[in-house]
């Protein structure tokens, strides 16, 4: 490839990166600008006096600290449950031959539940939770998010388990280990990286979720960050600063996690694409 | 430990993979299951290990029926074709695994691991991981893991097939010596008839799930029970003749059998560059100089056979030669059943 | 001959034990709500089973508008995301330095909460101080007419732009993976046969890329049909109801008007549409592989 074309490609790459990241950067600057600077024309990209007043407002005056905690709690709890249940199911589906090809059918069925549009289950779930007096509780969100994440965990972990050669477990059992022992001592250590990546992905999905949180929470006790941010919008006189500050805080953990597992995420995506 | 298979069968839904197999393996015996791929030898091994359930028939260990016994409890050790080493553990941990699972204390484990490692000359590798080892080294680790717990039997599934030719020969010799040292009952699966001949006390030749012959290696070679065994064992395999050639051969060798397939081993075909009285004419197709001998492919009456000639035999293609066979070296097999006559 | 008790029957019940909790949870959170939803969609005011809710759909102009908006939104966004993603994947299929870092950074928009994407673009597209209009003004353009969120067509454009910004990387990643899975040999053969760049693309690349393309399109279509979050923030369905998609209308019906039965009926329609389209894609996938 000659240098002209290569230069062109690098240009495209840079352009794409700028287009992808500049809007986020803009939001970050808004969160640090005084209101005067926020409304400045032409827009100030780099030179402005920074301030932390919006962060203070969001997290000290208003309840974003609480929202942050709720998001964290719900995300971690639902991820842990989803990993526990989903990994067991994934192992069974990857290893055991069930009659009538049940293992493959079940795997497909589990995956298909992910295809439901959220609103389709959100409406009845609200009614059900209302009857159970679970509306506006973190517990309701944890339950719903666990169900949300389970199909993904099963799908990912099944792939990872399938990559561990059957030989190893058979060797372990002939060596004298029980099936559980073989699972614990031989198989799990080998899928640990996959488990971590799957867990982080579940955390991100739970963290980002909006519709169910919107529907199932009403007050600060249970509201999560996305709902809190949306709350700034539906009042008149939008508080851009506080909204941006909360949004920035909302995306920090994601940026950190996403960058650390991007290799596995791409692999997970391409597994689906290439294997059809 | 003695192992007995009694009318053992296994099918995965279609035709049987193992068909009515009966075998008795004595304590301390080295038995080889020999056959082409798909003949059911690996499945048989796995049934002995308990990794597959038999469809019908009995598996007896020390005269006790063990069909329902889990692999963990059978006290057999298995060496897999892929070695199945635990990739996330060091060599030492790999070898120690069977002992750890049996909850021996740390000192005992260390002692036994060290002793076994010394036996297989892999002490230097103990701290390494499987991915850092060469094929031959991994093989030794797999063996060490099998030996360390002093099992009642070894089950080996084509352990040498992943090694290059030279290493294979070396390991073959070491395996034989090891077995003699430990005197443990061994069931060994392979498709390589040279391995079978050299390693086993007795060899069970299998084809399409059925036992063809179970005997000492030399017996199998000199008195194959049917046509399949005759062709499969021996490298190169036995030559078989069409009727006309057989008749000419038989007339010339003054034998009396008719209506049978006639076979002769390549080493029993004598070749001469000059015409001799009573010898049959043939034409050289191609010669393969092996170094220590020559494989001569001959054409006789439009049929190709192989003869083994001494190392100094030279003949170009199309050269006329004369061959002779001894009557007592001919093998006769019923044309329909393939069985030895 | 006595038949053997299957040694691995024990293993089979273990398998069911492992799978059961997951199935139970999924049943409780997906299947049961669905049944519940269908049940209430058949309930009218009198308490008898009725198709009134479904009949209403045909005359409801908001519903029909939402249907239209959803399809327009999905069609435009899908097309542009696909073309852009494909273009990027083709251009960047070769080994460039820093490709992994580039891919990692490209993932960022995809990982954001859609709510935040709504915030980001609402800030950018603000007619007065947003960076887009501000930068355009700086270049001398007159941006008075560019009232992004206040004009119906521009508002639809805004939400589509935001979607494209967030999800083109997704298309790009899947298509790139698909491209890289294509072996070298067909290309070499085409080269030797004298094929031009366009011909190679049409007869070698595209057919071999078909599975990846179909998967990417399928996944993305499913998500586009149920879009909710960032529109909620960016335009709140407005101005008026110009950007109200099906999900937004269902939400409004259920939680602003508390008309759950009707909302359930609409949800059912949305579900059927989604399933039909995905079944169509899957059939395409299967015939491709034949």
Report on this model:
The complex is a heterotrimer of chains A (276), B (341) and C (290). With 276 residues, chain A is mainly α. Chain A is 78% helix and 0% strand. Chain A is globular, with a radius of gyration of 23 Å. Chain B is α+β, with helices and mostly antiparallel strands. Chain B has 2 domains: 3-232, P-loop containing nucleotide triphosphate hydrolases (Rossmann fold, 3-Layer(aba) Sandwich); 239-334, Nucleic acid-binding proteins (OB fold (Dihydrolipoamide Acetyltransferase, E2P)). In chain B, the strands form 4 sheets. In chain B, strands 6-7-8-3-9-10 form a 6-stranded mixed beta sheet, with helices on both faces. Chain B starts with a strand and ends in a 7-residue tail after the last strand. The model of chain B has no long low-confidence stretch (mean pLDDT 87). Chain C is an all-alpha fold and 290 residues long. Chain C has a single domain (48-289), classed as MetI-like (MetI-like fold, Orthogonal Bundle), CATH 1.10.3720.10. Chain C has 12 helices and no strands. Chain C has helices at 9-41, 52-59, 61-91, 99-111, 114-124, 131-138, 152-181, 185-193, 197-225, 229-234, 246-255, 260-289. Chains in contact: A-B, A-C, B-C.
In short:
The complex is a heterotrimer of chains A (276), B (341) and C (290). Helix content of chain A is 78%, strand content 0%.
Total number of β-strand segments of chain A? Answer: 0
Q: Quick one: CATH superfamily of chain C?
A: MetI-like
Note the beta-strand portion of chain C. Answer: under 5%
Instruction: Using the alpha-carbon principal axes, give the shape of chain A.
Output: globular
Tally of helical runs of chain A: 12
CATH superfamily of the largest domain in chain A: MetI-like
- CATH names the topology of the largest domain in chain A as MetI-like fold
Q: How big is the Rg of chain C?
A: 24 Å
Low-pLDDT stretches of chain A are none
* Top CATH class of the largest domain in chain A: Mainly Alpha
* SSE string of chain C: HHHHHHHHHHHH
User: What number of structural domains do the residues of chain C give?
Assistant: 1
Helix amount of chain C: over 70%
Largest interface pair: A-C, 95 and 96 residues
Number of helices of chain C: 12
Structural class of chain C: mainly alpha
């Amino acid at each position: 490839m000659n240098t002209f074309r290569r230069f062109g490609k690098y240009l495209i790459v840079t352009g794409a990166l700028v287009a992808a990241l500049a809007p986020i950067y803009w939001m970050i600057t808004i969160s640090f600008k005084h209101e005067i600077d926020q409304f400045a024309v032409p827009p100030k990209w780099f030179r402005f006096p920074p301030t932390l007043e919006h962060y203070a407002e969001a997290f000290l005056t208003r309840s974003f600290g609480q929202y942050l905690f709720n998001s964290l709690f719900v995300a971690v709890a639902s991820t842990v449950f989803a990993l526990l249940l989903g990994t067991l199911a994934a192992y069974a589906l990857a290893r055991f031959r069930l009659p009538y090809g049940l293992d493959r059918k079940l795997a497909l069925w589990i995956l298909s539940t992910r295809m439901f549009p959220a609103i389709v289950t959100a409406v009845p779930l609200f009614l059900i939770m209302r009857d159970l007096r679970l509306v506006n509780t973190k517990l309701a969100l944890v339950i719903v998010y666990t169900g949300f994440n389970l199909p993904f965990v099963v799908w990912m972990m099944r792939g990872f388990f399938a990559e561990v050669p059957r030989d190893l477990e058979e060797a372990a059992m002939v060596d004298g280990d029980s099936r559980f022992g073989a699972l614990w001592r031989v198989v799990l250590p080998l899928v640990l990286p996959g488990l971590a990546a799957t867990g982080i992905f579940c955390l991100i999905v739970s963290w980002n979720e909006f519709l169910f949180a919107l529907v199932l929470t009403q007050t600060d006790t249970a509201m999560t960050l996305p709902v809190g941010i949306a709350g700034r919008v539906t009042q008149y006189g939008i508080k851009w600063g506080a909204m941006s500050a909360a949004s920035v805080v909302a995306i920090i953990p994601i940026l950190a996690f996403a960058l650390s597992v991007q290799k596995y995420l791409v692999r997970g995506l391409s597994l689906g694409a290439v294997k059809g | 430990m003695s192992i007995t298979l009694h009318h053992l069968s296994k099918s995965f839904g279609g035709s049987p993979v193992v068909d009515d197999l009966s075998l008795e393996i004595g304590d301390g015996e080295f038995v080889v299951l020999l056959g082409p791929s798909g003949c059911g030898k690996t499945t048989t091994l796995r049934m002995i290990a308990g990794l597959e359930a038999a469809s019908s028939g009995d598996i007896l260990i020390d005269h006790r029926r063990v069909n329902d016994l889990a692999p963990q409890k059978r006290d057999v050790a298995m060496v897999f074709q892929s070695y199945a080493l635990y990739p996330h553990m060091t060599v030492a941990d790999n070898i120690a695994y069977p002992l750890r699972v049996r909850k021996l204390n740390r000192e005992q484990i260390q002692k036994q691991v060290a002793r076994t490692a010394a036996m297989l000359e892999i002490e230097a590798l103990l701290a390494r991981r499987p991915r850092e080892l060469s094929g031959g080294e991994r093989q030794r680790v797999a063996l060490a893991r099998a030996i360390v717990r002093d099992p009642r039997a070894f089950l080996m599934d084509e352990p040498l097939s992943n090694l290059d030719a030279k290493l294979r020969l070396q390991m073959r010799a070491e395996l034989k010596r090891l077995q003699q040292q430990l005197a443990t009952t061994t069931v060994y699966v392979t498709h390589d008839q040279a391995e079978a001949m050299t390693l086993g006390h007795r060899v069970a030749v299998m084809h399409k799930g059925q036992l063809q012959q179970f005997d000492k290696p030399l017996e199998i070679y000199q008195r194959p029970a049917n046509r399949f065994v005759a062709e499969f064992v021996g490298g190169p395999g036995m030559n078989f003749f069409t009727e006309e050639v057989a008749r000419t051969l038989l007339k010339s060798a003054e034998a009396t059998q008719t209506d049978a397939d006639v076979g002769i081993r390549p080493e029993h075909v004598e070749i001469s560059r000059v015409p001799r009285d009573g010898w049959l004419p043939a034409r050289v197709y191609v010669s393969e100089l092996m170094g220590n001998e020559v494989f001569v492919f001959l054409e006789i009456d439009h049929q190709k056979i192989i003869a083994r000639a001494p190392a100094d035999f030279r003949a170009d293609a199309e050269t006329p030669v004369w061959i002779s066979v001894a009557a007592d070296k001919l093998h006769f097999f019923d044309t329909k059943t393939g069985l030895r006559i | 001959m006595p038949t053997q008790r299957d040694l691995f029957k024990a293993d089979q019940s273990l398998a069911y034990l492992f799978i059961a909790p997951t199935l139970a949870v999924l049943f409780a959170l997906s299947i049961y709500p669905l049944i519940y939803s269908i049940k209430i969609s058949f309930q009218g005011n009198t308490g008898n089973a009725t198709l009134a809710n479904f009949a209403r759909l045909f005359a409801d102009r908001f519903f029909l508008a939402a249907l239209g908006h959803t399809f327009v939104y999905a069609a435009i966004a899908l097309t542009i995301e696909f073309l852009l993603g494909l273009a990027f994947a083709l251009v960047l299929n070769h080994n460039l330095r820093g490709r992994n870092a580039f891919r990692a950074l490209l993932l960022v928009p995809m990982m954001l909460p859609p709510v935040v994407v709504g915030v980001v673009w609402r800030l950018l597209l603000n007619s007065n101080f947003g960076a887009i209009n501000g930068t355009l003004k700086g270049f001398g353009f007159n941006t008075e007419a560019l009232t992004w969120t206040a004009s119906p067509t521009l508002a639809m454009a805004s939400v589509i732009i935001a979607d494209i910004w967030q999800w083109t990387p997704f298309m790009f990643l899947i298509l790139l993976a698909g491209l890289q899975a294509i072996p070298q040999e067909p290309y070499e053969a085409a080269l030797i046969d004298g094929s031009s760049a366009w011909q190679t693309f049409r007869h070698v690349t595209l057919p071999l890329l078909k599975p990846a393309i179909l998967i990417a399109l399928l996944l993305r279509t499913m998500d586009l049909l149920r879009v909710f979050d960032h529109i909620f923030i960016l335009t709140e369905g407005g101005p008026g109801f110009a950007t109200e998609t099906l999900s937004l209308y269902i939400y409004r019906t259920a939680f602003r008007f508390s008309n759950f039965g009707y909302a359930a009926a609409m949800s059912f329609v949305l579900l059927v549409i989604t399933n039909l389209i995905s079944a169509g894609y899957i059939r395409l996938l299967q015939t491709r592989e034949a």
